[in-house]
Amino acid sequence: MRHIVNDFIHQAGVHCGSTALADVMRYNGFSLSEPICFGLACGLDFLYIESDTASPSRFFNGRTHTMEPVLFQNIGMDIHWQSGDEFPAAAIKQNLDKNIPVLALTDLHYLEYYNTKTHFSLHGIVIAGYDDERRVFFVADTERDGLQETSYDNLAHAMDSKEGSVPLANHWMAIEQIPAFDLVVSMQKAIVMNAKRMLQPPDQTSGLPALRSFASRMEKWDQLPDWKWVARFGYQVIEKRGTGGGAFRKMYATFLQEAEQLLKNESFRQLQPSVKMNQLSLKWTDLAMVLKEISESDQPDFTPAVSIAREIADSEQLFFENIELAFRA
After folding, report:
1. pLDDT 10s digits, 58-92
2. Same domain (yes/no): 132, 192
3. How many folded domains does the chain comprise?
4. 22-31 burial by CB neighbour count: b if 16+ within 10 A, else e?
Protein backbone atom coordinates (compact mmCIF):
# COMPACT_ATOMS: atom_id res chain seq x y z
CA MET A 1 0.00 0.00 0.00
CA ARG A 2 1.09 3.59 -0.68
CA HIS A 3 -0.38 6.76 0.79
CA ILE A 4 0.61 10.42 1.14
CA VAL A 5 -1.41 12.78 3.33
CA ASN A 6 -3.90 14.61 1.11
CA ASP A 7 -3.00 18.22 0.31
CA PHE A 8 0.04 18.25 2.58
CA ILE A 9 2.50 20.93 1.45
CA HIS A 10 5.97 21.38 2.89
CA GLN A 11 7.36 24.91 2.93
CA ALA A 12 11.14 24.96 3.27
CA GLY A 13 12.45 26.69 6.39
CA VAL A 14 15.52 27.31 8.51
CA HIS A 15 15.21 25.19 11.63
CA CYS A 16 13.94 21.61 11.73
CA GLY A 17 11.51 21.86 14.65
CA SER A 18 9.96 25.23 13.82
CA THR A 19 9.69 24.32 10.13
CA ALA A 20 7.90 21.08 11.05
CA LEU A 21 5.54 22.98 13.37
CA ALA A 22 4.79 25.58 10.68
CA ASP A 23 4.02 22.76 8.22
CA VAL A 24 1.57 21.11 10.63
CA MET A 25 -0.07 24.41 11.61
CA ARG A 26 -0.47 25.33 7.93
CA TYR A 27 -1.96 21.94 7.11
CA ASN A 28 -4.54 22.58 9.84
CA GLY A 29 -5.47 25.98 8.43
CA PHE A 30 -3.24 28.31 10.48
CA SER A 31 -0.75 30.15 8.29
CA LEU A 32 1.92 31.16 10.81
CA SER A 33 5.50 32.09 9.98
CA GLU A 34 8.35 29.91 11.16
CA PRO A 35 9.59 32.56 13.67
CA ILE A 36 6.11 32.81 15.20
CA CYS A 37 5.98 29.04 15.56
CA PHE A 38 9.43 29.10 17.15
CA GLY A 39 8.33 31.78 19.60
CA LEU A 40 5.01 30.12 20.46
CA ALA A 41 6.98 26.95 21.18
CA CYS A 42 9.26 28.81 23.64
CA GLY A 43 12.05 27.62 21.40
CA LEU A 44 14.80 29.81 22.81
CA ASP A 45 17.02 28.23 25.45
CA PHE A 46 20.57 27.21 26.17
CA LEU A 47 21.66 23.62 26.74
CA TYR A 48 25.13 22.56 27.83
CA ILE A 49 26.22 18.92 28.16
CA GLU A 50 29.65 17.47 28.95
CA SER A 51 30.37 13.84 28.05
CA ASP A 52 33.86 12.46 27.44
CA THR A 53 32.33 9.50 25.58
CA ALA A 54 30.38 11.67 23.13
CA SER A 55 31.57 13.43 19.99
CA PRO A 56 32.04 16.31 20.50
CA SER A 57 32.76 15.94 24.21
CA ARG A 58 31.25 19.38 24.90
CA PHE A 59 27.83 20.01 23.38
CA PHE A 60 25.69 23.14 23.54
CA ASN A 61 22.67 24.44 21.70
CA GLY A 62 20.62 27.63 21.67
CA ARG A 63 17.18 26.05 21.62
CA THR A 64 15.10 23.87 23.90
CA HIS A 65 14.58 20.16 23.30
CA THR A 66 10.89 20.37 24.31
CA MET A 67 9.57 22.91 21.82
CA GLU A 68 7.16 20.85 19.72
CA PRO A 69 4.59 19.94 22.42
CA VAL A 70 4.98 23.35 24.09
CA LEU A 71 3.57 25.18 21.05
CA PHE A 72 0.39 23.13 21.18
CA GLN A 73 0.12 23.55 24.95
CA ASN A 74 0.46 27.32 24.55
CA ILE A 75 -2.50 27.41 22.17
CA GLY A 76 -4.68 25.44 24.57
CA MET A 77 -4.11 21.80 23.58
CA ASP A 78 -3.07 18.92 25.83
CA ILE A 79 -0.40 17.35 23.61
CA HIS A 80 2.68 15.37 24.60
CA TRP A 81 5.26 13.19 22.86
CA GLN A 82 4.46 9.51 22.65
CA SER A 83 7.49 7.29 23.08
CA GLY A 84 8.55 3.73 23.82
CA ASP A 85 10.95 0.91 23.07
CA GLU A 86 9.27 -0.23 19.85
CA PHE A 87 9.36 1.57 16.51
CA PRO A 88 5.72 2.80 16.10
CA ALA A 89 5.42 2.02 12.37
CA ALA A 90 1.84 0.75 12.60
CA ALA A 91 0.60 3.75 14.61
CA ILE A 92 2.33 6.18 12.26
CA LYS A 93 0.74 4.54 9.21
CA GLN A 94 -2.69 4.50 10.84
CA ASN A 95 -2.53 8.26 11.29
CA LEU A 96 -1.21 8.84 7.79
CA ASP A 97 -4.09 6.76 6.39
CA LYS A 98 -6.45 9.18 8.19
CA ASN A 99 -4.57 12.10 6.57
CA ILE A 100 -2.94 13.15 9.83
CA PRO A 101 0.74 14.12 9.43
CA VAL A 102 3.06 12.85 12.16
CA LEU A 103 5.80 14.81 13.91
CA ALA A 104 8.88 12.80 14.92
CA LEU A 105 12.29 13.34 16.52
CA THR A 106 15.27 11.73 14.82
CA ASP A 107 19.04 11.46 14.72
CA LEU A 108 19.80 12.82 11.24
CA HIS A 109 22.85 10.54 10.98
CA TYR A 110 20.46 7.74 9.97
CA LEU A 111 18.46 9.76 7.44
CA GLU A 112 20.19 8.68 4.25
CA TYR A 113 19.55 11.89 2.33
CA TYR A 114 21.90 13.71 4.75
CA ASN A 115 24.81 11.38 4.01
CA THR A 116 26.61 12.43 7.20
CA LYS A 117 28.78 10.67 9.76
CA THR A 118 27.77 13.11 12.51
CA HIS A 119 25.12 12.13 15.04
CA PHE A 120 22.66 14.94 15.74
CA SER A 121 19.57 14.01 17.73
CA LEU A 122 16.35 15.95 18.39
CA HIS A 123 16.07 16.60 14.65
CA GLY A 124 12.38 17.23 13.97
CA ILE A 125 10.64 16.05 10.80
CA VAL A 126 7.09 15.56 9.56
CA ILE A 127 6.21 12.09 8.29
CA ALA A 128 3.70 12.64 5.50
CA GLY A 129 3.42 9.31 3.69
CA TYR A 130 4.67 5.78 3.12
CA ASP A 131 5.10 3.11 0.45
CA ASP A 132 4.95 -0.50 1.67
CA GLU A 133 6.23 -1.97 -1.57
CA ARG A 134 9.38 0.14 -1.55
CA ARG A 135 9.54 0.18 2.28
CA VAL A 136 10.03 3.95 2.52
CA PHE A 137 8.47 6.82 4.43
CA PHE A 138 8.03 10.24 2.83
CA VAL A 139 9.13 13.04 5.14
CA ALA A 140 9.24 16.84 5.14
CA ASP A 141 12.57 18.16 6.40
CA THR A 142 13.65 21.76 6.98
CA GLU A 143 15.25 23.49 3.95
CA ARG A 144 14.71 20.64 1.49
CA ASP A 145 11.94 21.17 -1.06
CA GLY A 146 9.21 18.58 -1.40
CA LEU A 147 9.26 15.26 0.41
CA GLN A 148 12.35 13.15 1.10
CA GLU A 149 12.49 9.37 1.21
CA THR A 150 13.89 7.36 4.09
CA SER A 151 13.70 3.60 4.46
CA TYR A 152 11.65 1.91 7.17
CA ASP A 153 14.85 0.57 8.74
CA ASN A 154 16.65 3.90 8.67
CA LEU A 155 13.76 5.80 10.24
CA ALA A 156 13.54 3.13 12.93
CA HIS A 157 17.24 3.66 13.72
CA ALA A 158 16.88 7.46 13.53
CA MET A 159 13.98 7.56 15.99
CA ASP A 160 15.62 5.24 18.53
CA SER A 161 19.22 6.48 18.37
CA LYS A 162 21.18 6.63 21.62
CA GLU A 163 24.27 8.08 19.98
CA GLY A 164 23.40 11.77 19.81
CA SER A 165 23.72 14.29 22.62
CA VAL A 166 20.19 13.41 23.81
CA PRO A 167 19.07 9.75 23.58
CA LEU A 168 15.84 9.17 21.66
CA ALA A 169 13.06 6.67 22.36
CA ASN A 170 10.75 6.73 19.32
CA HIS A 171 9.25 10.14 20.04
CA TRP A 172 6.26 11.00 17.84
CA MET A 173 2.96 12.87 17.93
CA ALA A 174 -0.04 13.10 15.65
CA ILE A 175 -2.00 16.37 15.61
CA GLU A 176 -5.50 15.39 14.55
CA GLN A 177 -7.21 18.78 14.77
CA ILE A 178 -6.20 22.23 16.00
CA PRO A 179 -9.00 24.38 17.51
CA ALA A 180 -9.21 28.15 17.10
CA PHE A 181 -7.03 30.12 19.51
CA ASP A 182 -6.18 33.73 20.40
CA LEU A 183 -2.76 34.42 18.88
CA VAL A 184 -2.08 37.49 21.04
CA VAL A 185 -2.86 35.65 24.29
CA SER A 186 -0.71 32.69 23.21
CA MET A 187 2.21 34.94 22.24
CA GLN A 188 2.21 36.72 25.60
CA LYS A 189 1.98 33.40 27.45
CA ALA A 190 4.91 32.02 25.45
CA ILE A 191 7.13 35.09 25.98
CA VAL A 192 6.61 35.04 29.75
CA MET A 193 7.13 31.27 29.92
CA ASN A 194 10.33 31.45 27.87
CA ALA A 195 11.78 34.19 30.08
CA LYS A 196 10.90 32.29 33.26
CA ARG A 197 12.45 29.08 31.95
CA MET A 198 15.70 30.86 31.03
CA LEU A 199 15.93 32.39 34.51
CA GLN A 200 14.60 29.41 36.48
CA PRO A 201 15.21 26.29 34.37
CA PRO A 202 14.17 22.79 35.48
CA ASP A 203 17.82 21.75 35.87
CA GLN A 204 21.36 23.12 35.68
CA THR A 205 22.00 21.87 32.13
CA SER A 206 19.69 24.50 30.61
CA GLY A 207 18.87 28.19 30.77
CA LEU A 208 21.06 30.86 32.35
CA PRO A 209 22.76 28.46 34.82
CA ALA A 210 23.93 26.35 31.88
CA LEU A 211 25.06 29.43 29.98
CA ARG A 212 27.17 30.62 32.93
CA SER A 213 28.61 27.12 33.37
CA PHE A 214 29.42 27.05 29.66
CA ALA A 215 31.23 30.41 29.87
CA SER A 216 33.19 29.34 32.94
CA ARG A 217 34.15 25.81 31.92
CA MET A 218 35.20 26.91 28.44
CA GLU A 219 38.44 28.10 30.05
CA LYS A 220 39.55 24.45 30.25
CA TRP A 221 38.48 23.40 26.75
CA ASP A 222 42.11 23.78 25.65
CA GLN A 223 42.83 20.61 27.66
CA LEU A 224 40.33 18.49 25.72
CA PRO A 225 41.68 15.87 23.27
CA ASP A 226 39.00 16.92 20.78
CA TRP A 227 39.32 20.68 21.31
CA LYS A 228 39.38 21.36 17.56
CA TRP A 229 36.11 19.50 16.98
CA VAL A 230 34.51 21.06 20.08
CA ALA A 231 35.36 24.53 18.75
CA ARG A 232 34.25 23.72 15.21
CA PHE A 233 31.00 22.13 16.34
CA GLY A 234 30.39 25.14 18.58
CA TYR A 235 30.73 27.45 15.59
CA GLN A 236 28.35 25.27 13.61
CA VAL A 237 25.60 25.10 16.24
CA ILE A 238 25.63 28.88 16.59
CA GLU A 239 25.71 29.89 12.93
CA LYS A 240 24.90 26.77 10.90
CA ARG A 241 22.86 23.63 11.54
CA GLY A 242 19.48 25.29 11.12
CA THR A 243 19.77 28.05 13.72
CA GLY A 244 18.99 30.97 11.43
CA GLY A 245 22.14 32.64 12.80
CA GLY A 246 23.16 33.83 16.24
CA ALA A 247 22.21 30.67 18.16
CA PHE A 248 18.50 31.06 17.24
CA ARG A 249 18.48 34.59 18.67
CA LYS A 250 17.98 36.14 15.23
CA MET A 251 14.85 34.05 14.65
CA TYR A 252 13.53 34.88 18.11
CA ALA A 253 14.11 38.59 17.43
CA THR A 254 11.80 38.30 14.41
CA PHE A 255 9.14 36.70 16.61
CA LEU A 256 9.52 39.51 19.16
CA GLN A 257 9.14 42.11 16.41
CA GLU A 258 5.79 40.55 15.52
CA ALA A 259 4.83 40.50 19.20
CA GLU A 260 5.66 44.19 19.62
CA GLN A 261 3.11 45.01 16.94
CA LEU A 262 0.34 42.83 18.36
CA LEU A 263 0.69 43.01 22.15
CA LYS A 264 -0.74 46.04 23.94
CA ASN A 265 1.80 45.97 26.77
CA GLU A 266 3.55 49.36 26.65
CA SER A 267 6.29 48.33 29.12
CA PHE A 268 7.14 45.44 26.81
CA ARG A 269 7.26 47.69 23.76
CA GLN A 270 9.45 50.28 25.48
CA LEU A 271 12.06 47.59 26.12
CA GLN A 272 12.50 47.27 22.34
CA PRO A 273 12.96 43.52 22.85
CA SER A 274 13.40 42.70 19.17
CA VAL A 275 16.25 45.22 18.87
CA LYS A 276 17.97 43.92 21.99
CA MET A 277 17.52 40.29 20.97
CA ASN A 278 18.99 41.05 17.57
CA GLN A 279 21.99 42.64 19.34
CA LEU A 280 22.35 39.44 21.34
CA SER A 281 22.29 37.41 18.14
CA LEU A 282 25.20 39.47 16.83
CA LYS A 283 27.20 38.75 20.00
CA TRP A 284 26.56 35.05 19.47
CA THR A 285 27.78 35.40 15.90
CA ASP A 286 30.95 37.06 17.22
CA LEU A 287 31.45 34.06 19.49
CA ALA A 288 30.91 31.69 16.59
CA MET A 289 33.56 33.40 14.49
CA VAL A 290 36.09 33.20 17.34
CA LEU A 291 35.36 29.48 17.80
CA LYS A 292 35.80 28.96 14.07
CA GLU A 293 39.22 30.66 14.21
CA ILE A 294 40.21 28.50 17.19
CA SER A 295 39.20 25.34 15.32
CA GLU A 296 41.53 26.30 12.47
CA SER A 297 44.51 27.16 14.72
CA ASP A 298 47.44 24.98 15.74
CA GLN A 299 47.26 25.83 19.44
CA PRO A 300 44.05 26.21 21.46
CA ASP A 301 43.43 29.55 23.17
CA PHE A 302 39.80 29.95 24.27
CA THR A 303 40.44 33.16 26.22
CA PRO A 304 38.69 35.51 23.75
CA ALA A 305 35.75 33.12 23.47
CA VAL A 306 35.37 32.98 27.25
CA SER A 307 35.21 36.78 27.42
CA ILE A 308 32.40 36.96 24.83
CA ALA A 309 30.48 34.09 26.42
CA ARG A 310 30.52 35.83 29.81
CA GLU A 311 29.31 39.06 28.23
CA ILE A 312 26.47 37.16 26.55
CA ALA A 313 25.46 35.52 29.84
CA ASP A 314 25.28 38.90 31.59
CA SER A 315 23.29 40.45 28.72
CA GLU A 316 20.81 37.58 28.52
CA GLN A 317 20.30 37.63 32.30
CA LEU A 318 19.37 41.32 32.13
CA PHE A 319 17.19 40.84 29.05
CA PHE A 320 15.00 38.11 30.52
CA GLU A 321 14.76 39.84 33.92
CA ASN A 322 13.43 42.92 32.12
CA ILE A 323 10.94 40.83 30.16
CA GLU A 324 9.57 39.38 33.41
CA LEU A 325 9.30 42.87 34.93
CA ALA A 326 7.47 44.21 31.88
CA PHE A 327 4.68 41.68 32.25
CA ARG A 328 4.39 42.12 36.02
CA ALA A 329 3.62 45.82 35.56
Report:
1. 999 999 988 999 999 999 999 999 999 999 999 99
2. no
3. 2
4. bbbbbbeebe
